[in-house]
């Protein structure tokens, strides 16, 4: 009788501890758990403990990833978002775009196209932010945020379609507007309003189609956040700080989607320039 009361109280204490501090029972310090894991693991209650364990292990494992990039660069941020969603460690290597570092021989030896980001994973070197993102999301598919959901060929087809829609329909007008309305003013140049006026209707046409899609779907490829949504973040983040934000805000379903994807903790960290410079820096 006494021992069963003891057992029940013990179980209660454990339950309270787990519900308040989901990681403490594993001897994991809450501050070591990537915020992205917190965000993701809270939604998957059955496997929550396993989920924290994966995330924590992943964050502490040295994967040896090196990322050549610049923390203000939209394409660098695309890859950073994936690294933070997955809670992966990496060494940042700053390629200063302001001083034209990306066109100097030292960097051209790494990427002859003279563009960032570049990911180095031991003997593998990858250019192109979307290819790097897909690589990381596939290698680390079983940890933290599920960015690809290739449970069937149909799902794979739909996700790939939305990823290419981003590249071929959304990005061309969006990146022109980002350049004119966000980047140019940032470096003290005036936007070319002729270009802006010509480009806006092209983006509006794309967003009208997104609005219809997002009326019936929480995210572009499915009801879950995927790499297809993530790919849009860098341009959207910059454009939401310009008058072009109205194009997104005027469309209720697009607006809801923008709010959901820009609020992700991993994305906030990807935009945090101090988080980039705060890491230990190794040279080339
Ligand atoms: N499609 C490439 C584009 C890369 C790209 O244009 N990167 C920009 C920074 S956001 C860059 O390196 N610009 C330097 C230059 O054009 O000289 C990707 O997604 O990685
Ligand atoms: C996840 O759950 C923990 C514990 O219940 C809570 O402290 C934390 O704020 C939650 N995080 C998110 C992003 O919802
Ligand atoms: C761009 O459009 C705005 C609003 O329609 C107009 O006031 C402005 O003169 C246009 N600028 C150029 C350079 O075409
Ligand atoms: C989206 O939902 C609306 C209202 O529920 C419906 O009328 C419309 O046919 C749906 N569109 C698609 C593409 O499924
Ligand atoms: C969305 O994610 C949850 C949790 O990971 C999963 O259970 C569910 O099957 C996913 N839904 C879709 C439509 O992929």
From TrEMBL:
Please identify the protein, giving its name as recorded.
Answer: glutathione transferase
Q: Which GO terms describe its cellular component?
A: cytosol
Q: Which residues form the signal peptide?
A: 1-30
GO MF entries: glutathione binding; glutathione transferase activity
Q: Please state the Enzyme Commission number of this protein.
A: 2.5.1.18
Compartment annotation: Cytoplasm, Cytosol
Q: Which Pfam families match?
A: GST_C, GST_N
Keywords on record:
Cytoplasm, Detoxification, Signal, Transferase
Task: Describe the location of the GST C-terminal domain by residue ranges.
Answer: 152-284
Question: Do the record's keywords include Transferase?
Answer: yes
Show the InterPro entries listed in the entry.
Glutathione-S-Trfase_C-like, Glutathione-S-Trfase_C_sf, Glutathione_S-Trfase, Glutathione_S-Trfase_N, GST_C, GST_Phi_C, Thioredoxin-like_sf
**Keyword Signal annotated:** yes
Where does the record place the GST N-terminal domain? 63-144
**GO annotation (BP), single:** toxin catabolic process
Q: Which reaction does it catalyse?
A: RX + glutathione = an S-substituted glutathione + a halide anion + H(+)
Family, per entry: Belongs to the GST superfamily. Phi family.
